[in-house]
Each structure stands twice: as C-alpha cells, then as structure tokens.
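Input sequence (253 aa), recorded before submission:
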Amino acid sequence: MIPAHSLKSIKERAKNCLLRPYITHQRVPVADDSFQFMTSLDMRRPVKYQTVEIREERQSKLIGILFCHPKSPLGKAEIVDHLDYFHERSGDMVDFFCVGFGAYWPSESYPDKTAVTKINDTEWFFSSKAYNEVRREIEAETSWEHSGETELVLLSARRTPDNSAELDFSTAIVCKLEQMGKDKAFTSVRAFFESIFKFAEKHSGADPVWVLSDKKGVETGGNFLKEFVLSLLPKNLSESCKQAEHFVVRDIS
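Predicted structure, token format:
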C-alpha cells in the first residue's frame, strides 16, 4: 500500500519500484572438487546444492489505483482498518496506490488532512483535497470518469527505455467495488484483494506472462486481467458481468 496525493507521485513511485531488481532464489548444484576421477560409486553420491540469489531488471509490474474515501461505509468496514495487513500481504508483487492518503506530510500540507490509520506504526492521513486532485489529473489524462464510489483500477506499470515508468491504461480494468458487492461478485473486499495478491505472486517476474498476454490482447480483444477477475466470480455471474457497467475493461488512455 502506497500513499498517493498526485498522479506525479504515482508515476515516480512506480518508476522507483521498477528500478529495483526482481529477486528470486534458486537451488543449484555445487561443484565438488574433492575428486578428479568419477567412478560408478561417485555417481551415486548425493548431489550438493546451494541457494543463490538471482537478480533481473524488472520490466513491468501490476499496480492498482484505489479510490476509497475512508468515511464511506465500504471503506470504513473493509478497507481502511485493514490497510496495515494489506500492506504486508501485497509485499513486492503488487502495489496499490491509495488515492488521497499520505504520510510524513508537513503541517502546512493539506490543512484538511485527518489521521485515519497506521501502517508499520506510521500515521497515515487522508485529504479530500488530495483525493480530488488525483481524480482530476487521471480524468484529464484518460477517458475514465470517477463514479464517486469505491473503485479499484488495475493496470500495469511498464519500464521505458529511459528508465522511467508509464502507466498502461490501454488494458486497465475498472472494478466498482460497491456494485460488485451488491451483485455478490465476491464475498468481501478482503477476499477479492487476497485473490489479486495470490494472482500477482503466481504471475510475477521480471516481465510477467500476463503482460505479454495483454499486449496481444489489445489486438485480439482479449485481456488477461479481465479473464482473471472473471474467473473469480460465481459461474452464474461471469457471463453477465462481462458487459456490466461496474466491470469495465477498456482502453481508457
């Protein structure tokens, strides 16, 4: 979970995340120099392994832009009080940018700010002014319009040749969480977020397979993120939700 008080801050944090290497750990066999001539007995000796760290340049990453007012019923009941857990659970696999939220704000910044929660013992604030600034910036840069309810925009951040970051709105998926809850598309927002975290863990990488699928999906009309979220829904809802207003997959760039 990352504070987001401007579109510039979202892009800058996405850039910093992409510049950090993607790290994995693998077990590899260790060369044994204790003998020079291998015999049939030597071949039956157990192979020694060691764990090595693999670092790769990260090319893309799944991010979510979360529009959640802390005073909304859904925000109070299922999101704000759980931000500390979401922060730990999401790890390095996926970043959720919490619009209007911030930490370490100077006293003169956003006079309307109010303390709403703590993450890692750090106080987080919310500012309606900051929230609306980000809303206006994204609406000005895309064709998306905020519904006024709690929304999660899922998309990918991509690394550019100049080591900056671009937000790919061409395969974005907009989830209107209140409406999805009313339609029983999920049992709770917490369960929905957990599915996203597991998805990111499974498909993570320096350049995840779902990114390549989405590049092709722009041409074929398919979308890996869309198919993933549809797979989470009850079967009787998946078909109707493909066209539902609260479940939009489209180019909003």
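Checked by second reader. Residues 30 and 48 are 5 Å apart (CA to CA).
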